[in-house]
Amino acid sequence: MTFLDADGLTKVYGEGCSACLATTGPEYDRNRCPECDSVVACADVSFEVRDGEVLGIVGESGSGKSSVAEILALDADATAGTATIRGHGDVLDADYQRRREIRDEHLGMVHQHVHDGLNLSFTGGGNVAEKLLSAGWRHYGDIRSRVRGLFEETEVPVDRMDDSAETYSGGMQRRVQIAKAIANDPGLVVLDEPTTGLDVSVQARVLDTFRRLQREQDVATVVVSHDLSVVRLLADRVLVMRQGRIVEAGLTDRVMEDPHHEYTQTLINSII
Amino acid sequence: MTDAEPESLEELHDPSSEGLEGYNYAYLDEHTKREVRRATLKAISIPGHQVPYASRAMPLARGWGTGGIQASLSLLGPDDVFKVIDQGSDASVNAANIRRLAETTADIETTTDTTAASVIQTRHRIPEEVLTDDQILVLQVPVTDALRRVDGSDDRNRTRHAHADYSKMWVALYESVVQWGEVDIGARYPVMVEGRYLMDPSPIPRWDVPKLHDADNLFVFAAGREARIYAIPPHTDVEPLAFEDRSFRVEHFDEEACDACGSTDTFLTEVEGEDGERRFACNDTSFCEKRQRNSDCAKDDHLERSDIAWGPGTGIDPNGFVGDGGEDI
């Protein structure tokens, strides 16, 4: 069953004009509108995510994949398009009160930059507790045991729970973000570059942890990465983006083994 | 000034300028009073919400009660009886000066008796004696926003108030319990008003915080420096932020009693005498004097009812828990 239905997601930075969408894209090899100089971060991005499915979005820097992630996580407004989450309607159209409620209780986001995802002056446990407190948890003992449980699940040392998050290693910070993202059992988790900046062995452990949690909890996930191996490991289906547009979509194995679009072929050949 | 410089003291001191002569009634011009009253009315209609107003320059430095003076002077009329207290004391220089300003310009009676006053301006205390529905308590406010403890940006904090997003304050409480075993906020304990706005109750001790809940009187909070007024109307729900299993606690003085009147049910301050000995004494001096005359004087003696909840009652839990208490740390 479809959990998330994104239709025509478009984000234009700048004033925008009627020519923006028609004069940008992979066929023109540009995302800046020649008429008004606006940047078309993404345009007409449509996809579905089913229950328990992991959708990967790959593309080079500036291809618009993070813009899509930000729109889905309700961190940025879309210029056009709808994102319908089952049971909540079009979440992009919701007023701020509803948006906040959906963000706090039904969405989880793992940010590329730790400063966007965590408050480093708080303890690691406090960062996870923030998500619970936003959702209305008011029992200290319950919050403590839930945070402890989440630390165990994400394999962050529980005895570091009450240390300031800035004293954590990069891998631990990423895990704390995952713990925070899944704290309220959200319906949808968005991972933006979940392994960027981590060394290879830590990458593997973070991915392992997330893959296990994702299977156990059967949560719909969108994972955005420039790293094809991350997407290959996590995603069931994949979208390939370039200059703000989807150039190819399909089952991960099919796209990896038999890429149809010229750009995808280059992308895969250049990495493997 | 075109006139020549005054040549004698008599010339400088013009007796005709004493009292009301030369001043508008209650010092402030009518336009200012209207401005302050308008803000006060708006504050009363949105309990706990900070309402901006045009704070005027006052004849004393901002931060010394200029907001309180403007609120008080805009409320006072010829029939009012005015009391001013500074941290429980009627006798401090600042309290005496503010009282005298109102006396000379608003032609009102002043008192030190809490039960006799109709308007009470106070700095950092709520009187021990129960206030009634025909009294107004004006509190001086140095810091208007409880959220400033966790974020210095007023801009972001205003957005948080608009969205009723107080999670950052809650995380600060969580962190404080993690570190200290309880919430480490003494004065300025954050409260939720009517389940909507987070409010800074001004630096009253925790002891006074429960008095804000479901009171008979009106509380007006006025900040001169920050130009904000907010209010708690009578019978408003005011709840100090606390976890369900870590109840709000007030200060406790163990077995200590007031050195002057012997009270054990009042907010005590520790003072060091000239002999170097430490003693505890009532912070509310006017009530302490009453108790010295009559040790049986209750906080609600002036009322017909005697079942009124007004702050921590007599015989409070030695741990300072109010109400059901809770699990100890």
UniProtKB/TrEMBL annotation, chain A:
Q: Which UniProt keywords apply?
A: ATP-binding, Nucleotide-binding
Q: Does the keyword ATP-binding apply?
A: yes
Give the record's GO biological process terms. organic phosphonate catabolic process
Q: Which InterPro entries does the record cross-reference, listed alphabetically?
A: AAA+_ATPase, ABC_transporter-like_ATP-bd, ABC_transporter-like_CS, P-loop_NTPase, PhnK
Q: Which GO molecular function annotation, any one, does this entry have? A: ATP hydrolysis activity
Concerning Gene3D superfamilies, the annotation shows: P-loop containing nucleotide triphosphate hydrolases
Alphabetical list of SMART domains matching this protein: AAA
**Segments forming domain ABC transporter:** 4-268
The domain of life is Archaea
Task: Output the SUPFAM superfamilies linked to this UniProt entry.
Answer: P-loop containing nucleoside triphosphate hydrolases
Q: Does the keyword Nucleotide-binding apply?
A: yes
So which residues are the signal peptide here?
Answer: none
* A matching Pfam family: ABC_tran
**PANTHER family cross-referenced by the UniProt entry:** PHOSPHONATES UTILIZATION ATP-BINDING PROTEIN PHNK-RELATED (PTHR42764:SF1)
Stated name of the protein: Putative phosphonate transport system ATP-binding protein
Q: Which organism is it from?
A: Halopenitus persicus
UniProtKB/TrEMBL annotation, chain B:
Keywords attached to this Swiss-Prot or TrEMBL record, sorted alphabetically, are: Lyase
Do the record's keywords include Nucleotide-binding? no
According to its UniProt entry, the protein's GO biological process terms are: organic phosphonate catabolic process
Instruction: List the InterPro entries hit by this protein, alphabetically.
Output: PhnJ (IPR010306)
User: Keyword Transferase: yes or no?
Assistant: no
Q: Where is this region: Disordered?
A: 308-329
GO molecular function (one): lyase activity
Q: What is this protein called?
A: Alpha-D-ribose 1-methylphosphonate 5-phosphate C-P lyase
Q: Which organism is it from?
A: Halopenitus persicus
